[in-house]
Amino acid sequence: MYTTGVCPYCVQAERLLRAKGAQEIAMVRVDLEPERRAEMMSRTGRRTVPQIYIGETHVGGFDELVELDRAGKLVPMLRGG
C-alpha cells in the first residue's frame, strides 16, 4: 500500500485490511521516499494515497477497498481467491 504518515484514509484502509485478516501489509511511504510517489503515479495513474494492491492487483484507494468489502469480494481476494 502506498501511503503517507498523515493520511487518515491510509489508516482506515490498514485497519480494514487487518480486520479482514491481512497478516502483512507492505507500506510504501511516499512522503519519506519521493521517488516512490513517481513510481506510484506511473503504476496507478493516480496521485493520491492510499493506493492499495492485493497481490499484483491494484484495488485503488480507500473508497474502492470499502466497495470491495461491501460486495463481499475483499476477504476472498485476501485469501488468494
Short description:
The protein is α+β, with helices and mostly antiparallel strands. The chain has a single domain (2-78), classed as Glutaredoxin (3-Layer(aba) Sandwich). It has helices at 8-19, 34-44, 62-70, 74-78, and strands at 2-3, 28-29, 52-54, 57-60.
Order of strands, widest sheet = 1-2
Based on CA atoms alone, the radius of gyration comes out at 12 Å
Name of the CATH superfamily? Glutaredoxin
The ordered H/E elements are EHEHEEHH
Report the mean per-residue pLDDT as an integer.
96
What percent strand?
5-15%
Whole-number tally of structural domains: 1
CATH architectural type = 3-Layer(aba) Sandwich
Q: Helicity level, as a percent range?
A: 40-55%
Itemize the secondary structure elements and their pairings.
Blueprint lengths: L1 E2 L4 H12 L8 E2 L4 H11 L7 E3 L2 E4 L1 H9 L3 H5 L3
Parallel strand pairs: 1-2
Antiparallel strand pairs: 3-4
List keywords for this structure.
81 residues; alpha+beta; Glutaredoxin
Question: How would you characterize the overall build of this protein?
Answer:
- The protein is α+β, with helices and mostly antiparallel strands and 81 residues long.
- The chain has one domain: Glutaredoxin (3-Layer(aba) Sandwich), CATH 3.40.30.10.
- Helix content is 46%, strand content 14%.
- A two-stranded parallel ribbon has the order 1-2.
- The longest helix is centred in the first third of the chain and has 12 residues, at 8-19.
- The radius of gyration is 12 Å and the shape is globular.
- The chain starts with a strand and ends with a helix.
- The mean pLDDT is 96.
